[in-house]
Amino acid sequence: MEILERVEEVRGASRAAKARGNKVALVPTMGYLHPGHLELVRRGRELAGFCVVSIFVNPTQFGPSEDLEKYPRDFARDTELCRAAGVAAVFAPPAAEMYPDGFQTYVTVEGLSQPLCGARRPGHFRGVATVVAKLFHAVEPDFALFGEKDYQQLQVVRRMVRDLDMAVRIEGVPTVREADGLALSSRNAYLQGDERQRSLALSRALERAQELVSAGESRPEPVLAAVGRILAEAGVRVDYAELRDPTTLAPVARIAPRAVLALAGFVGKTRLIDNRVLSAPEGAARRAEP
Ligand code: AMP
């Protein structure tokens, strides 16, 4: 497994792999890898003979008061996990390689970046879209894998690729969870004491929401009220809990045929996100018509 720090090196490795007849898959990460990341790698290796994992804690997607400095890092462990998972190359550029002096060019996906996390983390998705575009230019992948865990990010990346005619296929990968439902996240490492237990309220709330919708509820208000109660009982401070169109992220008036329930909440000082696409039972969309 190669460990590369320069854009030119990883581009060279990718082009050489393609010249040998391989497809190339890219899994962009910020490191501190867990089985969710490794599921993206597994899927990438199914799609392509040469799988690249990038490990880069991207400064432009962190706000001034966010956790850039203390974001968890363990490069030695990450590279071992990549090696064991059959990754062909790790791309781990220093910040100055990605953002040289005088850097001033950004990618903005306008509408999709505005609601949900975009509203609470100004500039976040501009940083994400910019670094993902740069990684695509560096690696020139045929496929890039993103987790549904970061649902809005996945939609932003899909839109960017369509709008800017990028020659890469985006694959969304379902959220990998602990046995008790907690979505895996590098930030789970911050949870202390009873916070780990309390954080289960997010996945429980998503589950409850789907139960209500399966039982025929299609109005957002009762579903959001139930979600709010579950989060409040666990002492999770809600940042947002919203029902949106799964593709456009526009607000929905009814949960039919589908809507994404997107949650963000603080458990102590740790901000966690989770989501689920809620599906109404067959025929509910028609019944919802006036
Ligand atoms: P991050 O390192 O947090 O930037 O995540 C890198 C990639 O892994 C993103 O595409 C995430 O959506 C994805 N990812 C993170 N957690 C999970 C998870 N629990 N299940 C599936 N994908 C995940």
List the helices and strands and how they pair.
Layout (H helix, E strand, L loop, with lengths): L1 E3 L2 H13 L4 E6 L5 H13 L2 E6 L19 H10 L4 E3 L3 H4 L17 H5 L3 H16 L3 E5 L3 H13 L5 E5 L21 H4 L1 H15 L5 H14 L3 E8 L13 E10 L2 E10 L4 H4 L3
Parallel strand pairs: 1-4, 2-3, 2-5, 3-4, 5-6
Antiparallel strand pairs: 7-8, 8-9
The structure holds adenosine monophosphate (AMP).
Description of the structure:
The structure is a single chain. This protein is α/β, with parallel strands linked by helices. Helix content is 38%, strand content 19%. It has eleven helices and nine strands. It has helices spanning 7-19, 35-47, 75-84, 95-98, 116-120, 124-139, 151-163, 195-198, 200-214, 220-233, 284-287, and strands at 2-4, 24-29, 50-55, 89-91, 143-147, 169-173, 237-244, 258-267, 270-279. A six-stranded parallel sheet has the order 1-4-3-2-5-6, sandwiched between helices. Strands 7-8-9 form a three-stranded antiparallel sheet. β2 (24-29), α2 (35-47) and β3 form a beta-alpha-beta unit. α1 (7-19) packs across α6. The mean pLDDT is 97. Bound molecules: adenosine monophosphate (AMP). Adenosine monophosphate (AMP) binds next to α2 and β5.
